[in-house]
Amino acid sequence: MERVSSVWSRAAALAALAWGAFHLYRAAALAITVDEAFTFHRFVGVRWLELLRSYDANHHVLHSVLCKLSVGALGASEWSLRLPAVAGGWAYLYFALRLARRYAGTGPAMFASFLWMAGLPQIAEYLSLARGYSLGLAFFAAALWFASEDEPKWSRVSALVGLSIASNLVFLIPCAALGFLALRRGANPRTLAAPAVAILAWFLAVPLSRASMDSYYFGVKTWNECIQSLLPFPWLKWAAAAVLALGTVRAWRCGRAREIVWLLPVSLAAIAILFVFFSVPLPYERTGIYLLAMTGLLVGPACRWAKAEWPLALLFGAAAVAGALHLSASQSGVWTFDSYNREAMTIIRSQPARAPRVAATFPLEHGAEFYRRIWRLPWPEVAQWRPGLECDYLLWRTDESHAPLPEGFEELARDARSGVLLGRRSAQR
Amino acid sequence: MRETLSVLQGGVAAFAGSVAAGWIVLALLRARLQGVERFGLAAALGAGVYSTLLLPLFSMGQLRRSVATGLAAALVAGAVLLRKRVRQEDAQRGPWWWCVLTLSVSVLFTVVWSLNALAPDLTPPGMSPALEQASVLWAQHKLQPGEPLSAASPPWTAAFAAGRHSACSLLHVLMLCALAALAYGTGRRWLDVAGGSVAALLLISNPGLGAAASDAGTEVFLLLEACAAAAFVALAWKTAQPRLYAAAAVTGVMAGLLALDPQAEWFRGFLFGFVPGPWIVVPVLAALCAWLFHSSTASALLIVGFACLTSWPRITRMLAPSQTKIVMSANPGLALERKGVEEYLAKNLPGYTEARFLDEQTAEGSKILVEPKIARAWTKREVVTAEYWMPLALASFEDEYMPDREERIQVGAGPRTSYKLANGEWVAEVRFYRRGVETPRKQHWRVRCAQAFDNNPVTACREDIEVSFGEKTEFDEVRLQGKRGRPVRPPQGLRAAIVQEWKRQGVTHILAAHGGDLEDELIRHMPYWHVAELGERNGARLFRLE
After folding, report:
1. Which of B292, B298, B310 sits opposite A206 (nearest CB)?
2. Each residue of A107-139: pLDDT tens digit?
3. Backbone angles phi, psi at B340, to 5 degrees
4. C-alpha to C-alpha distance for A372 and A368, rounded to whole angstroms
5. Is the Cα torsion angle A212, A215, A217, A219 positive or negative in sign?
6. Which of A314, A362, A374, B220 is a plausible cystine mate for A76, CB 3.0–4.6 Å?
7. What does the alpha-carbon distance between residue A56 and residue A43 come to, in Å, rounded to a whole number?
8. Are the CB atoms for B522 and B529 separated by under 8 Å?
9. H or E element, residue A244
């Protein structure tokens, strides 16, 4: 690591520490979300054999393996389930900081670049959620860091690329783009491919033997939807457009940063090829997370445009911070309805009924069932609500339909933020 | 144990004969090759030569275990005499532990596949032409002139002569070893020791190749010949040995002939299972892996470790998708001691025990109607499967087939030269009447639906009826006996008529399935059927026509 001691680099390190600490806290404070609970039910809370021989788009294999180890060692809880993702998040922040220093120097542009890579809402959301995105980002950022050295060890880069893809299959695209850049720099194709292939064989060959094209269902069919999901606020779109335009031109002129200019277009080309020829959906929200990280690499060069580093850094940094401020420690930005899961189950647990039958509107049953399992409650499995189902308690979503509780249920509690009602079977029935 | 030794003798002798024959030819060609490479190439080249030597012996009726073993011994002696005529080139030196690892893992997997091969007959039921021809040749003791042969038939028959199906499977497993040796030698020559080891280990541990090898098909034999042909061409070109083009031609022709045999589809392992394509892609992918991993020891060990671990039969069975065809788990007790063979066979190869029973209980030349499903390759007797003869048997006791109806069709008076009737039901007999008197059938009548004109009420047909009388014939009524018209009393002596028809067709025995209607009928009315029970095996009962 380059020895730098500027105020900005110290500030960036402090910001990284603070942001990491926030995610540590968030991992413990946030109620479980549907995708995390699904991961737990299908891939973590099952036998090793089941973990290895099943596949779904939700199955981020290396992450699931680490979660299983973590849950096995520390016991099942939201915290132990999220530990690998948080560790990945910390590693990502570390390498994002180093990449920002490498491509943006030691001034305000570096700080803005780091803020962009760490604070954009679609990135920050997953630094503390039990999914494979933060691990994938961390390994990818590490691979990018080692690949950008003057005399890179390509076998190390390849191993990191393999681990990134094993963490989450969506990183196949940026890793392929990185491989393209490595080949342009004269890397030996064998050295570049062998470690990655060996690692991928160990982690992915068995699960993917059960996959089909239908397994890759998550995504959208238009570029507009793709961009809307990645950059949910108007000011972010404008800022990202400016970063892309200015950063690309500036980086192309600047020797060292020129290599990163190719990452984004090659990735986009790969996405387009997969979309057009293989009907793989376009990235949606988290599945395009690497595109946002790549944009962050261009912030540094963009800030140096026309020697206006200070104002541009302020602009881009403020956009990133404004996005980061939308992140809550008690509510997921994606699965807002899940924030009441833990509290609702705690209320039901405190009720006098011995083995209540709990139901929930889709997809709340996953989160509720997670708590039933980790608290080892001897209740029937939480069921998905359907008319006519016999149950004692009902978790009812109102954020989509605004429908009242079904007939025969009375309101026991209500969560204003998530819009979830907790209903109890009426006594007079 | 004696049976196991016979299997080992059959498989090993045929393989040794092939390697020795190949070695002799390489010596005559004064080939210049590297260490292990020689054995793989000799096995591939020798299989064709050994086949050619066996054919005249078969034609002379010398199809015996001792003859096949003697020929193999003579070839081995010749190869030993000429051992130094195949000149050895210096090979690349590499880390010793790669050689030890390759050898030990290869031996381990060879034992696993061999145990599968040695276990009672893990052969597809009559699906391999080479095995079926070996079985037929063995039954006939002689190669009939003009009989078409699979390229693999001669060595397969030589192995079959000593140890039957299992010996052929063992020979096939040894060919997989030859393929691995060829991969090791070729990889070592063109890449380095690590490359050769990776290629060899990926091939020997491949669950698809292992499964195919431990069946008596010819897939691995085909791959060996194809790879050897490619290797000979490359050697001839790169090492300036044009004589090796002849060897390439022989192995290429063998590969071409073997490619005509149908190929089975087995699970190709987690490493190669993703790649679509025919069987030939497996060695190509192994070569690609060798090229990719040979310069990175850690990656090479990782990939080889993964391939070997997930190819272990029990692990493959646990992890692989359920719809894939996977090798059976090796069972040493079953393979070597033949414990619980009957139970094993009844579970894994339905019909096999019954086939052996037929061979034991019936004389040569017998023709047997069999109700249980039996692959023809498993018995030397001629068997006729139920779908061809069961309707005839059912005519005696099943209402659906019994000729218990009669239809009388009035036709206009006057002479005719032909008669045609659209039909869709079983008709056993058609007769023509004039004023209540039957018009006798004539030799020169030309009929369609002949079973309705044979005076046998149990033979019937459902096709349209057509008669060309060849002269003007007068009749005013046509009577159809079978399943058309009003109910009538069935004719007497149906069972005797059925037996008479079977005897006319040369049938000598009936094998009835356990618990079926036929078995019940034959036991209840044995005197009417004129049959005698010979015994029961695995539930199936064998009857002889008296």
Report:
1. B310
2. 898 999 999 999 998 999 999 999 999 999 999
3. 60, 35
4. 6
5. negative
6. A374
7. 10
8. yes
9. helix A234-253
Q: In Å, how far from its chain's centre is CA B27?
A: 35
Strands B427-434 and B477-482: antiparallel
Contact A199 B302 (CB under 8 A): yes
Question: How many whole angstroms from its chain centre is CA A243?
Answer: 22
For the segment B465-502, what is each residue's pLDDT rounded down to a tens digit?
Answer: 899 988 888 888 999 988 888 888 888 888 888 888 88
Q: Say yes or no for a CB contact (<8 Å) between B299 and A49.
A: no
CB contact under 8 A, B306 and A202: yes
Tokens representing B377 are 């390759």
- Min Cα separation B209/chain A (Å): 18
For B64, half-sphere exposure in the C-beta direction (CA atoms, 13 angstrom radius) is 6
- Distances in whole angstroms, Cα of residue B264 to Cα of each of A163, B140, B272, B397, B544: 36, 27, 16, 42, 38
Residue A295 · residue A98 · CB < 8 Å: no
Q: Which of A202, A204, A210, A213 to mutate to test the interface with B (most CBs of B within 10 A)?
A: A202
H or E stretch covering B415: strand B415-421
- Whether B330 shows a pLDDT value over 70: the answer reads no
Nearest CB neighbour to A198, from listed B273, B299, B310 = B299
Token pair 């760490």: residue: A118
Q: Do B319 and A193 touch (CB under 8 A)?
A: no
Q: Tell me how far apart the terminal alpha carbons of chain A are, to the nearest angstrom.
A: 70
The CA–CA distances, whole Å, from B147 to A273, B58, B136 equal 55, 12, 11
Beta-carbon-side half-sphere exposure of residue A333 (alpha carbons within 13 Å): 22
| H-only helix segments in A54-171 | 61-74, 78-104, 108-119, 121-124, 133-147, 154-167
Under DSSP, is residue A186 helix (H, G, I), strand (E, B) or coil?
A: coil
Provide the 10 A C-beta neighbour count for residue B492: 9
Spatial distance between the Cα atoms of A290 and B101, rounded to a whole number of angstroms: 41
CA dist A75 and A374 (Å) reads: 8
Task: Check whether B336 has a pLDDT greater than 70.
Answer: no
Q: Which of A196 and B93 is assigned the larger pLDDT?
A: A196
* Cβ-proximal residues to A61 (8 Å cutoff; 6+ apart), any chain: A132, A166, A167, A203, A204, A207
Nearest CA in chain A to B319: A53
